[in-house]
Known about the structure:
Blueprint: H1 2-23, H2 26-42
Helix pairs in contact: 1-2
Amino acid sequence: MLFTYLVLKITILCLIAIGIRGTLPRYRIDQITQYNWKHFVFC
C-alpha cells in the first residue's frame, strides 16, 4: 500500500514538473529539477 502511494506521488510530481518546465523559463527549471531529482533519487 505504501509503495503504491509513493509511486503515485512520484508520478504526480513528475507530471507537475513537466508542466512547470513547459510554462516557466527553461534553463532555470532544468537546473532546479535536475538537482532535485538527483538528490531525491540517490538520497
